[in-house]
Amino acid sequence: MTPPPEDSVTNGEPRRHAMLSGAKAMLPILIGIAPFAAVAGLAGTQNGLSIAETAALSLFAYAGAAQVAALDLIGDGVGAGIVIATALTINLRFIVYSAALAPTFADERLPRRLIGSYLLVDHAVPLTLTETHRRPPHDRVTFYLGACVVFWCTWQTGSLIGSLLGSLPRIGVAQFAVPVSFLALLAPQLRAWPRACAAAVGGAVAVTCAGLPANLGMLLGTATGIAAGVATGWRSADREYKP
Predict the structure, then answer these.
(1) 163 and 204: one domain?
(2) Same domain, yes or no: 53 and 129
(3) How distant is the alpha carbon of residue 231 from its chain centre?
(4) Which of 22, 110, 122, 161 has fewest C-beta within 10 Å?
């Protein structure tokens, strides 16, 4: 009997099994992601982009919350520099995610690293890190890719459906879809005190400074929210480990 190719089996398990495991692990999360993806598509066509332009942005930018925020700013006529700065600020968290996944991808070839970086989303990081002691490194990468691919397909499909809906005549509810979707994503994350503090301080500063030019209100809110969260987290950690 001819053994399977070396690159198709890792530690006795076909790679397709690891990929399917990643996809299955992501499925429950997609219940909340599909509506948010539709909101991203809706935001595109409601803010002046065509269906094709919205689909292209979703494919090439693929930035989730930053994508929606950028579309909202474009609809308000904000300059390109501010839109880019806002998107980059929101996406700063991916630097931390990349550092966390770096050991997993350390022995991978460049094409898989590039694919992994393009597909990187918040939800795939904890799913993959939980596999650290369950699978060999190469299987963890395949697991990660399986989770990310099913997420990507759901996002692109939902975004396309949303852009089609957004191309219909503007209705009042559509104007509230973006902020409501952000609140729906934010609420489950506020169980820890540092996160709640960061959200409260950042939101208060952003609302207070909303009238500042060049979208500085949101940027200041982001910066102060991060600072408040970090400071609160350090204080909580200090109290926890203090003898």
Answers:
(1) no
(2) yes
(3) 24
(4) 110
pTM of the prediction? Answer: 0.69
The residue assigned the tokens 């609809």 is 75
pLDDT tens for the 243 residues of the chain, in order: 444 444 444 444 567 788 899 999 999 888 878 888 888 888 888 888 899 999 999 999 898 888 888 888 888 888 888 888 888 888 888 988 899 899 889 889 999 999 999 999 988 888 888 876 777 777 889 999 999 999 999 999 999 998 888 776 555 444 545 555 555 555 555 566 676 777 777 778 777 877 776 566 767 777 787 777 777 766 655 555 455
In a domain, 182, yes or no: no
Which of 90, 134, 87, 140 shows the shortest CA–CA distance to 116? 140
Q: Outline where DSSP puts E strands in the chain.
A: 9-10, 13-14
